[in-house]
Structure formats: structure tokens, C-alpha cells
Automatic annotation (TrEMBL):
This is Sialate O-acetylesterase. PANTHER family: SIALATE O-ACETYLESTERASE (PTHR22901). Residues 1-24 form the signal peptide. The keyword Cell membrane does not apply. It comes from Rufibacter sediminis. It comes from the Bacteria. InterPro entries: SASA, SGNH_hydro_sf, SIAE.
Length: 466
């Protein structure tokens, strides 16, 4: 070969190689075809590329290109302002190469997380599964299932992909998440994106960032005491690193949480853990998004007060701003830790969102929650929040009330509804000082608000477990 020709060939090969290696703009899995981006919000689009590479990102809803350059860590990100359109869109990412994301919707995006009851799907068995699966044709509802993984440090990406809600995809996705999303979609008439990052049998400690737990000695000590099990990780931050961190900063409307069964052994610590988790996630996303969670259902745990004390810890978490709790004691199953009625769970979570997040004030969202007590001679009168429409007993008489005097010995009590209050008494307690309601693992109480939603279990005392 002539030297001049060889030189041209070498130059061509070098240029071709440079172009090939430079074509490195890429995106995390959470940014893909069929995704839902939060509507009417500033969303982040991010990824990787070659250092110094110019990246342009354009959303078809406004066709306004946003430019940036890849930094010295091979990372880039831009902010896009989305609109309220519900027509499918595209997102174009252009560097040395071009990526076009198709069938992108703008709507409401919610993260679903927790343990098996959040992860539970129609394929595993839910009430009326066949009918629900058959009806699950909602092109404007999209799912992203995060695959179960662990990591020792926060990861940059997850495994998963966005899919359209069909009978085939719905039956493998979180049933609670699906029913929640369907309620939002049908009421708001907008697209809904649902991200499920859950793992059965896991304690709450694995869903924290490492710094959040380390900063609280009580929580760190609790996490360190966890014993290994066969069905999932127990070491702190393991799931957060692999299944939560890579989703940040994908813009969310809010988060849903259904977990606690694996923490019934230490309910007092859970009263600190759940609020800390909420703040940990909000800090990571730099977004004080709403956080709605499920109060776990009664179940035959080993001791006597595991469920009511864990449920109490969840009740106390309502003190955290912008939170809500779905009570499900009436739709659980004391013989099955996985209640099969996931429809009402999803609908009750959605009621909180519709009322509190989306302003539909006519949607009832909570049953009676204990507020205060007043001793009246040999009786105690109880007052409740969320009882403006009144109280009802589903049955002839109210059940699962107990009363005690200064000896701290509780006995079954008679309880009657008096307007928006309840009067509790027992013949053997002449000077009552405390009342408990639904205070055992298998309690299925019958106190409801007239809005049809059940009351949470509660106690008026703070006495230690005997």
C-alpha cells in the first residue's frame, strides 16, 4: 500500500474510533420509553457521557432545548419544565449520539415501597383477581418494577423498565400500587406512573440511607441487632443503596409505604424509624412530598401486644407533616399476614392523596382517630378527630374497649356512642384512669366513622408492657 494511502486509512480509522467511543451519551433505566414524568413541574433528566461533551435535551411538549456539558465525572443533568398535556410526548437527548424516548406521558408519579404486602400482586392471589386482571386495560397508567438487588454503597442505576398497564403487566405489579393508581387516574383524568421498589420480609432499616441511621445511635443499634434471614436482606441501607438511591432525583408526586410486619419485635424503636425514613427520603429528593402509609393489619403474632404497639407507632407518625395513614383492621385476616383484599387498601391510600394532595375535599380519607379523654366520675368520655359526621358501630354494640384504674389492670368495658364521643365504663372500675381500644394482636374492632372508614386502635395511657 502507498504510504499516502496508508496515512489516509489510518486517519479514517482513528476518526471512526474516536466517533464510536465518543458516542457515549446514555440514560438511567428510570428514564425510558413509556415513562411518566411529573406534570406541571420541574423535572430532572440526567445521564452519562464523555467529559466535556455537549448534551441537548428537548421535550416535545414545548420544543425548548436545554443544553449542558458532561462534567469531569462523566455525568450530566438538566431541568425541564413539563406541562399538563396528557398526549404522548417524546424526549430527545442529543450528544455525539441521539436518544429519542417515545410514548412519554406527563402525569402523576408515585413511588411504592415496603415489604411483601406492597409487593403482593394479582398473580400471587388477591380477592377477585380474575376480574381485576381482565379489566386492567389502562394505557395511561404505567408501571416501573425495580428488581430486587442489594449494594454496599449508593448505586447510579437500577434494573427495570417502564411498561404500559395491561392485564398481562398488571398481574405482576403491586396490587396496592395499581389500585391506588387506578383511583387517581379515574378521578383526576390524568396519566399515572407507579414505581414499585419493595421486598418481602424486609425490616425498615434496609430502606434508609447509611448516614441517616448512623446519625441516630438508637436506630443504629437497633439495625445492628437484626439477625440474618433466608428471604431477604436485614443489613441497614442494603436496599436503599440498590433500589432507592438510583431513582433520585426522578421527580415524584409522593410516596406510598406498606411495611412494619418485620419490625413488630421493637415497636418503640419503629416510632422513631418511620419518621426518620420519611425525612431521609425527602432530604434525598429535596422535596417535601406527601408520604402516605398503611397501618398494618391485625395478625396472630407470637406475643400479646406486638400488633397494637406497632400500629400505635404508625399512628404517632401522623405528627409528621404531610403524612396520612390508611387503617385496614377491617379488611385484614388474623390468620394470614398477607390480606387478600388489596382493593380497599389502595383505595384508602388514594383517598388521602385525592383529598390532601389533589384538593378533592369531598373525598373522605380517615376514620376516627383518638384525640383526648375526660374522666366523668366512674366513666371516661373519648373524643376523636375525623368524627364530624358522627360515629357508628358495625354491629349491635361496640367491641374491643377496655378500661383500667390506677392499678393498671384492664378489664373489658361497655362503650356507647354519645353524639361524636364515646362513653366507656365497667362496673368493677370505680375510678377509671385509662382506656384501650383494639389492644391485642387479633382485634378486629367495629368502630367506624359515618364515612365508612374504621377507627384506629389506640390507648390513652403510656404504661410499659407487662
Amino acid at each position: 500500500m502507498h504510504l499516502k494511502s496508508f496515512g489516509k486509512l489510518l486517519l479514517l480509522l482513528l476518526l471512526t474510533g474516536a466517533t464510536s467511543s465518543a458516542g457515549a451519551v446514555s440514560l438511567p433505566a428510570i428514564l425510558g420509553n413509556h415513562m411518566v414524568l411529573q406534570r406541571n413541574a420541574e423535572v430532572t433528566i440526567w445521564g452519562w457521557g464523555n467529559t466535556g461533551e455537549e448534551v441537548t435535551v428537548t421535550g416535545s411538549w414545548n420544543n425548548q432545548p436545554v443544553k449542558t456539558k458532561v462534567n469531569n465525572l462523566a455525568q450530566w443533568s438538566v431541568k425541564l419544565q413539563t406541562s399538563g398535556t396528557s398526549v404522548p410526548q417524546t424526549v430527545t437527548v442529543k450528544g455525539y449520539n441521539t436518544i429519542v424516548l417515545e410514548d412519554v406521558l406527563l402525569g402523576e408519579v408515585w413511588l411504592c415501597s415496603g415489604q411483601s404486602n406492597m409487593d403482593w400482586n394479582a398473580n400471587a392471589g388477591i380477592d377477585n383477581a380474575e376480574q381485576h386482571v381482565k379489566e386492567a386495560n389502562y394505557p395511561s397508567i404505567r408501571f416501573f418494577q425495580v428488581l430486587k438487588r442489594t449494594a454496599d454503597a449508593p448505586q447510579l442505576d437500577v434494573q427495570g423498565q417502564w411498561v404500559v398497564c395491561t392485564p398481562e403487566t398488571m398481574k405482576h405489579f403491586s396490587s396496592v400500587g395499581y389500585f391506588f393508581g387506578r383511583e387517581l387516574h379515574q378521578n383526576l383524568k390524568v396519566p399515572v406512573g407507579l414505581i414499585n421498589s419493595s421486598w418481602g420480609g424486609t425490616p425498615i432499616e434496609i430502606w434508609f440511607s447509611a448516614p441517616a441511621l448512623a446519625s441516630n445511635p438508637v436506630l443504629a443499634e437497633s439495625a445492628a441487632k437484626r439477625k440474618e434471614v433466608e428471604y431477604g436482606p436485614v443489613q441497614s441501607a442494603k436496599a436503599y443503596n440498590a433500589m432507592i438511591a438510583p431513582l433520585i432525583p426522578f421527580r415524584l408526586a409522593g410516596a406510598l409505604w406498606y411495611q412494619g410486619e418485620s419490625n413488630v419485635d421493637a415497636p418503640e424503636v419503629y416510632a422513631q424509624l418511620l419518621p426518620t425514613l420519611i425525612q431521609d427520603w425527602r432530604t434525598a429528593w429535596q422535596n417535601e412530598f406527601p408520604f402516605y402509609y398503611v397501618q398494618i393489619a391485625p395478625y396472630k403474632y407470637g406475643g400479646a401486644e406486638e400488633w397494637p404497639r406497632l400500629a400505635e407507632a404508625q399512628l404517632k407518625t401522623l405528627r409528621v407533616p404531610n403524612t396520612g395513614m390508611a387503617v385496614i383492621s377491617d379488611v385484614g385476616n388474623v390468620d394470614d399476614i398477607h390480606p387478600r383484599n388489596k382493593l380497599d387498601v389502595g383505595k384508602r391510600l388514594a383517598a388521602w392523596a385525592l383529598n390532601k394532595t389533589y384538593g378533592q375535599k369531598d373525598v373522605p380519607f380517615s376514620g376516627p382517630l383518638y384525640r383526648e379523654m375526660r374522666v366523668e366520675k366512674d366513666k371516661i368520655r373519648l373524643s376523636f378527630d375525623h368524627a364530624d359526621q358522627g360515629l357508628v358501630a358495625k354491629g349491635k354494640e361496640l367491641t374491643h374497649f377496655e378500661i383500667a384504674g390506677e392499678d393498671q389492670k384492664f378489664v373489658p368495658a361497655q362503650a356507647r356512642i354519645d353524639g361524636k364521643t364515646i362513653v366507656v365504663s365497667a362496673k368493677e372500675v370505680k375510678k377509671p384512669v385509662a382506656v384501650r381500644f383494639g389492644w391485642n394482636n387479633t382485634a378486629v374492632p367495629n368502630l367506624f366513622g359515618k364515612n365508612g372508614l374504621p377507627a384506629s386502635s389506640f390507648r390513652t395511657d403510656s404504661w410499659p408492657k407487662k
